[in-house]
C-alpha cells in the first residue's frame, strides 16, 4: 500500500482551518481585484446567467493571463450575453472573436457545450461540480468546481496552478506537484479548507492569493494573510526541521509528499522551494513554408488569399495563408520547390519556384511546438481559379484579413 502523508502535510486542526478561512476571506474582501466576471457573478440574480458568465471567464482564463482575458471577456459577453445567444452563433463567429487568445479549441468546445445545454438540458445549467464535469464538453474538474462554488454555492474546492502553489507552500509539499497522486492529495486539502458559507469567495481568494501574493518568484510573504499557517514560511524563518522528527513529522524516505532525498531543501530559495514539478519536455521544432499570395482587387486595393485549416487539430477551423509543413534541415531551394508544388495544387497554372520572393522567417511559440514560418510572397497578375475540392478559401483585403478568424502567428506573418 502507498505511504500515507503524515499529519504535518494536512489540515487536521479544525481551529487552524477556521482561522485560515477567516484571515483569507477578510484579506480578499479588502484586496480583491475588480474583475468584470466577479462583478457580473455578484450582481446577476439569474442563476443560469450567473453560471454562464463564470463559465466563460474560467474557460478563457485557462492558460491565459487575466490582463489579456478582460477585453476578450467583455466583447464576448456583449456579443453573446446568454447561453441561448452563444448556441445560435456560428463557429466562424466564435473563432473570429477568439482570434489571438490562443488554445482555440476552448472556444469551440464552449459553443458546443452551450448548444448541448440548450438542446438537451432545456437551457438549464447543471448545478453541481459532478454534473457540470459529466455533462458539459470541455469542462474539467477545476472548471466544474469553480462554476459550482462561485455560481451555485456548492461547498467544493478547486485546484488550479495558483492553488497548487499556495497549498504546496502552506504544507511543504515537495513531491512532483504534477503527479496524479499529489494532485489528488491537493484536491483533498482544498475540499477540507473550502469555507462552507462562502465557498465561491473562498476559492477565488485562494486563487487571488496565488496570483498576486504567493507568486512563483519573489513572493510577497510579508503581505500574506495566512503566513502564520505556512510551513514553508516558518521553515524559511527558522531553518531546517530538527534532526529528530516529532510525532507529526515525516518518516525517513517513505512520505509521498516530501521532497525527494536527491533534492533537499535549498535555503537560498526559501518558500520557492515549493512547489516542485517534473522537468518539462522541450517543445518540438517545426518548420512551415507560407506564401502570401497577392492580387489587385476590383477596387484597386490589394487582396490576399487565405485558406481554412481542418476542423480538428492545431488551430482548428482558423484561416491562414497557404502553407505546407517542411522537413527539418531542407535547403532553401528545396523549400521553395515544396511550396511551389503545394501552390500548384490550388491553381490551374504552374508556379515557378524562382518566382517566390523570400521575405523572412517568423517564429511563434505554441505550448508544445516551436514553430518557424518561412515566409514567401507571390504577386498574381490576372484571375486565378482555385480547386473547390480543396479546403475553403477566399480573397480578402488587409482590413478583412484582420477581422477574420486568423491566429496571432498569421498576423505576424
TrEMBL record:
The keyword Methyltransferase does not apply. Binds 1 [4Fe-4S] cluster. InterPro entries: DNA_glycosylase (IPR011257), Endonuclease-III-like_CS2 (IPR004036), Endonuclease3_FeS-loop_motif (IPR003651), HhH-GPD_domain (IPR003265), HhH_base_excis_C (IPR023170), HhH_motif (IPR000445), MIG/MutY (IPR044298), MutY_C (IPR029119). Its main location: mitochondrion. Transmembrane segments: none annotated. Belongs to the Nth/MutY family. Adenine glycosylase active on G-A mispairs. This is Adenine DNA glycosylase. It comes from Catharus fuscescens.
Amino acid at each position: 500500500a502507498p505511504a500515507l502523508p503524515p499529519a504535518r502535510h494536512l489540515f487536521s486542526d479544525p481551529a487552524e482551518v477556521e482561522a485560515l478561512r477567516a484571515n483569507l476571506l477578510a484579506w480578499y474582501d479588502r484586496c480583491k481585484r475588480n474583475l468584470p466576471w466577479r462583478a457580473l457573478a455578484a450582481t446577476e440574480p439569474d442563476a443560469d446567467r450567473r453560471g454562464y458568465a463564470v463559465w466563460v471567464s474560467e474557460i478563457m482564463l485557462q492558460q491565459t493571463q487575466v490582463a489579456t482575458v478582460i477585453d476578450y471577456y467583455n466583447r464576448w459577453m456583449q456579443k453573446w450575453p446568454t447561453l441561448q445567444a452563444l448556441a445560435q452563433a456560428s463557429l466562424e463567429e466564435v473563432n473570429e472573436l477568439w482570434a489571438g487568445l490562443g488554445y482555440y479549441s476552448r472556444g469551440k468546445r464552449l459553443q458546443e457545450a452551450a448548444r448541448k445545454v440548450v438542446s438537451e438540458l432545456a437551457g438549464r445549467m447543471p448545478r453541481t461540480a459532478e454534473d457540470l464535469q459529466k455533462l458539459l464538453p470541455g469542462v474539467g474538474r477545476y472548471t466544474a468546481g469553480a462554476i459550482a462554488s462561485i455560481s451555485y454555492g456548492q461547498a467544493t474546492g478547486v485546484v488550479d496552478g495558483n492553488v497548487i502553489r499556495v497549498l504546496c507552500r502552506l504544507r511543504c509539499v515537495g513531491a512532483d506537484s504534477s503527479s496524479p497522486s499529489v494532485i489528488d492529495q491537493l484536491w483533498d486539502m482544498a475540499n477540507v479548507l473550502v469555507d462552507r458559507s462562502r465557498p465561491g469567495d473562498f476559492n477565488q481568494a485562494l486563487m487571488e492569493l496565488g496570483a498576486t501574493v504567493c507568486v512563483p518568484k519573489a513572493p510577497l510573504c510579508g503581505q500574506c494573510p495566512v503566513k502564520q499557517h505556512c510551513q514553508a514560511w516558518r521553515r524559511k524563518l527558522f531553518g531546517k526541521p530538527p534532526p529528530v522528527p516529532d510525532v507529526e513529522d515525516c518518516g525517513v524516505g517513505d512520505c509521498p509528499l516530501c521532497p525527494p532525498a536527491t533534492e533537499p531543501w535549498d535555503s537560498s530559495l526559501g518558500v520557492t522551494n515549493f512547489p516542485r514539478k517534473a522537468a518539462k519536455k522541450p517543445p518540438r521544432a517545426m518548420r512551415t513554408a507560407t506564401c502570401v499570395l497577392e492580387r489587385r482587387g476590383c477596387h484597386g486595393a490589394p487582396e490576399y488569399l487565405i485558406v481554412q485549416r481542418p476542423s480538428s487539430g492545431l488551430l482548428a477551423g482558423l484561416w491562414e495563408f497557404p502553407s505546407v509543413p517542411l522537413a527539418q534541415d531542407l535547403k532553401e531551394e528545396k523549400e521553395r520547390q515544396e511550396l511551389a508544388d503545394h501552390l500548384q495544387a490550388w491553381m490551374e497554372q504552374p508556379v515557378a519556384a524562382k518566382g517566390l520572393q523570400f521575405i523572412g522567417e517568423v517564429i511563434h511559440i505554441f505550448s508544445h511546438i516551436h514553430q518557424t514560418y518561412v515566409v514567401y510572397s507571390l504577386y498574381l497578375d490576372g484571375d486565378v481559379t482555385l480547386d473547390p475540392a480543396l479546403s475553403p478559401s477566399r480573397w480578402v483585403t488587409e482590413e478583412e484579413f484582420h477581422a477574420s478568424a486568423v491566429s496571432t502567428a498569421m498576423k505576424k506573418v
